[in-house]
Specification:
With about 170 residues, the protein is of the alpha+beta class. It has 2 domains: about 100 residues, no CATH class; about 50 residues, no CATH class. Helix content is about 20%, strand content about 20%. It is built from 4 helices and 8 strands. Strands 3, 6, 7 and 8 form a 4-stranded antiparallel beta sheet that branches. The longest helix has 14 residues. The two termini are about 40 Å apart.
Length: about 170
C-alpha cells in the first residue's frame, strides 16, 4: 500500500446548492476538517477570498413591492394585499387591516442580503468598490469572529443610492 502526502489542493470552490457567493467558503472548512489529522496540512488554493461592496442606484427598485393588479387575466388582489401589508409593516406604518397572520412577515420574507444575481435588476454604480473583508483558510479554521468597518463614498450624486451590491 502506497501512501501519498498531499502538499497542495487546487480547487474552484463552487457548490451547486449555495445561494450567496460567500457560502462557497465551505470549501475551506471542509478541506481543513479533511486534513485536520495530517501532520503536514496542505496549502489550499485559492489562498484568500475578498468580499467587496459598491453603492448603486437600482432603476425601478420600487417594482419589487408594487401591486400587480392583474396578470395574464388573473386578478392578483389577494397577493397584492399581502405585498402591501408586508411593505407597510417593513416601513413601520401602523395599519388596521386584519393581518395577524402576517406578524413578522417582513423579517421572515426579506433577508438583509438578497441572493439575486446582479444582472437581474438594472443598476448604475454610484461609487467605487470597497473591500469589506479579506479571508484566508486560517480564518475559517480558527472560526474567529471578524469585524470590519469601511466607508463607501458616493461619487455620482445624480441619483440617491438605494442599494449596494456585494460580490466575492
Amino acid at each position: 500500500m502506497i501512501i501519498f502526502q498531499v502538499d497542495l489542493v487546487v480547487a474552484e470552490p463552487c457548490f451547486p446548492l449555495t445561494v450567496l457567493p460567500w457560502d462557497n467558503l465551505i470549501f475551506w472548512y471542509i478541506a481543513n476538517r479533511l486534513f485536520s489529522n495530517d501532520e503536514g496540512q496542505p496549502k489550499l488554493m485559492p489562498f484568500k477570498a475578498e468580499i467587496w461592496a459598491m453603492p448603486v442606484f437600482y432603476k425601478d427598485l420600487w417594482k419589487i413591492r408594487a401591486p400587480l393588479h392583474e396578470v395574464e387575466g388573473f386578478k392578483m388582489k389577494p397577493f397584492d394585499d399581502i405585498i402591501m401589508v408586508i411593505t407597510l409593516k417593513c416601513l413601520n406604518i401602523t395599519i388596521s387591516l386584519r393581518c395577524d397572520h402576517l406578524q413578522g412577515a417582513c423579517s421572515i420574507s426579506d433577508a438583509t442580503v438578497e441572493p439575486h444575481p446582479l444582472w437581474e435588476y438594472p443598476c448604475r454604480a454610484l461609487g467605487k468598490p470597497v473591500k469589506l473583508m479579506e479571508l484566508t483558510p486560517q480564518d475559517i479554521k480558527s472560526e474567529k469572529i471578524m469585524q470590519n468597518e469601511v466607508e463607501a463614498f458616493i461619487e455620482d450624486s445624480s441619483n440617491e443610492a438605494n442599494g449596494e451590491v456585494k460580490f466575492f
